[in-house]
Amino acid sequence: MKLLFPNGEHSPVVLTGKTLIGSGNDAQVILLSPGVAPHHAEMDLDGTNAKVTSLHPANEITVNGKAIVGTAPVKPGDLLTFAGVRARLTAIEKAAPVAKPSPPPVPLDAADDGRTKVRVALPKFVLRGVSGVTFGKIFPVHGTMVIGRQAECEIPIQSEEVSRRHAELKATPDGIMVEDLGSSNGTYVNDRRITRHLMKSGDELRLDTIRFLLLAPGQDIQQAQPKQAADTKQVPAISGGGNSKTVLMWSIVIVALLTLSAVAAKVLGVF
């Protein structure tokens, strides 16, 4: 397990055995903050069990907002405060197993056993990572899936900003229904915090700083961007340039005839 200090009072600390926390020079975790005693608290890790002990009744220590006196058990995900200094206890992620090399391709003759092959249907939607550790990765979405930091999640995201079980995704005929599972940093769709929301193709899903774009298979990111301007009606071009010249010529002839008629009438004394 390790302690993370979100406000930067100390770098992350990997816990081993007993760890002294305080403002004194002999502390393993030195916190120079008002109210922190020289020997403020002690963290004790025994295998998978951890506990925190207050070293003086006057020392302020809380676990998930509840003040403690003496010793209290703690577990990954708990929020601890030492006289106002916040720290999150997290589990150390296990290294991913080394992938086994793919077997050589089977010759077509050997693979053809006479049975009809069933083609796997493509998912209707996929999530494409556009930031952080998921940048460029594609995650097909089908059925009901949980996205989070736990390795048991259908979409595991190895990032400390993501909760262990952050959100649930459910594929529907109209889109992806996303529901926040009580995450610490919230779930956002198009930069708007949501509890439950139906996502459409082109929407952006954000888990703190980790961003995804919801796409249909084969859809390009540029195609998913919202249109910036309204569609404009196209005015058909006027064709038939030869007809326009003919009309102009006849107009000139008619004007000339009318002019000559007026001159002749004046000469003959009509007007």
Radius of gyration: 36 Å
How can the largest sheet be summarized? 6 strands, antiparallel
Q: Per the principal axes of the C-alpha atoms, what is the gross shape? A: elongated
Q: Name the helix and strand elements from N-terminus to C-terminus, one letter apiece.
A: EEEEEEEEEEEHEEEEEEEEEEEHH
Q: Helix- and strand-based class?
A: mainly beta
Helix content: 10-25%
Give unreliable regions as ranges: 226-241
Number of alpha- plus pi-helical segments: 3
**Mean pLDDT, nearest integer?**
80
Percent of residues in beta strands?
A: 25-35%
Count the beta strands: 22
In the sheet with the most strands, the strands line up as 2-1-11-10-7-8
Report the end-to-end length measured between terminal Cα atoms: 115 Å
Question: How would you describe what is shown here?
Answer:
The chain contains 3 helices and 22 strands. It has 271 residues and is mainly β. The strands form 4 sheets. Strands 2-1-11-10-7-8 form a 6-stranded antiparallel beta sheet, with no helix packed on it. A 6-stranded antiparallel beta sheet has the order 13-12-22-21-18-19, with no helix packed on it. A hairpin with an 8-residue loop joins β1 (2-4) and β2. The longest helix is centred in the last third of the chain and has 27 residues, at 241-267. The model is unreliable at 226-241 (pLDDT under 50).
Could you give the topology of this structure?
Elements: E1 2-4, E2 13-14, E3 18-22, E4 29-30, E5 41-46, E6 49-54, E7 61-63, E8 66-67, E9 71-74, E10 79-82, E11 85-90, H1 108-111, E12 125-129, E13 138-141, E14 144-148, E15 155-156, E16 167-172, E17 175-180, E18 187-189, E19 192-194, E20 196-199, E21 204-207, E22 210-215, H2 221-224, H3 241-267
Parallel strand pairs: 3-4, 14-15
Antiparallel strand pairs: 1-2, 1-11, 3-5, 5-6, 6-9, 7-8, 7-10, 10-11, 12-13, 12-22, 14-16, 16-17, 17-20, 18-19, 18-21, 21-22
